[in-house]
């Protein structure tokens, strides 16, 4: 009997959800059962058919089907990419309130099914929606994760790798804070191999300068706006980030990823869910890695926390 069942339920089979599903199928070996749920059942059915027809070309076999909330009971991970789009003239808070109602219609039946795994949220604003998931599910904080600044961090490492002409795998850098306008790069923590980038900037002024670091940080912060301007939405990158996090969980990797996790005294903060380097394994959050920030970086971080707190407080749960 195959006891190595790794079952993922995806709720929300739109562009982000299906980019994640497509990444799972093509990378192969991450999970062996994938259930698709959407309020638009016909869409979920069509997506399941389409993916199944590609399985003959995939690396490993997977059971893929459109299901319902009963299928969540024995799942390992619930990935949520369901959401509603902003209407014209609607404030960010109004949108947040509508997405909270969407989440209520999702989390309640998932919990009722007897689900006992890990929630992974991609819906924006992701830090708030992850906190909403935590509040509605009443799961332990280690089992509720958002994609946070994982994609922003991947973008940063790519751009720094390009700038220094070094494989991004050898650039150790994080974007932290809200996945949004108040996110930032703690430059004091950026390393090329084990050498601080601040030292490199100091030692090689002819080739590198701090202004370029600021330009790269801005490019990361505005990347989503640029993509949306060009093609209306972003989905491949976040789909791949979701697949990476799922792989870290199901593979019990203890990998460090900048997910949205609940702070419990780290950085002097509590309650808020925010993008921070976090060790991710089979039980979700194993530990939040607390970076040694400068005073200026601490201030930026606490501003981001404050902003997220204010938005959350404005919600009717
Ligand atoms: P989309 O409109 O293509 O898909 C949303 C899906 O959610 C639709 O299929 C819709 O039917 C479904 N849905 C709506 N209400 C539902 C409900 N009550 N139950 C089940 N399903 C429901 O949108 P998208 O482009 O896939 O984006 C999804 C979310 O991901 C958005 O909130 C977007 O802002 C977010 N996003 C996050 C990141 C990130 O870095 N975290 C990046 C890109 C997009």
Explain what you see.
The structure is a single chain. This protein has 317 residues and is of the alpha/beta class. It folds into two domains: 7-146, NAD(P)-binding Rossmann-like Domain (Rossmann fold, 3-Layer(aba) Sandwich), CATH 3.40.50; 150-313, L-2-Hydroxyisocaproate Dehydrogenase, Chain A, domain 2, CATH 3.90.110.10. The chain has nine helices and twelve strands. It has helices at residues 15-27, 41-54, 92-112, 126-137, 150-164, 197-203, 210-231, 236-250, 295-313; strands spanning 7-11, 33-37, 63-66, 77-80, 118-121, 144-146, 171-172, 191-192, 195-196, 255-264, 270-281, 284-288. The protein has a six-stranded parallel β-sheet, sandwiched between helices. Strand 10 (255-264) and strand 11 (270-281) form a beta hairpin. Helix 5 packs across helix 7 (210-231). The termini are far apart. 40% of the residues are buried. The mean pLDDT is 96. Bound molecules: nicotinamide-adenine-dinucleotide.
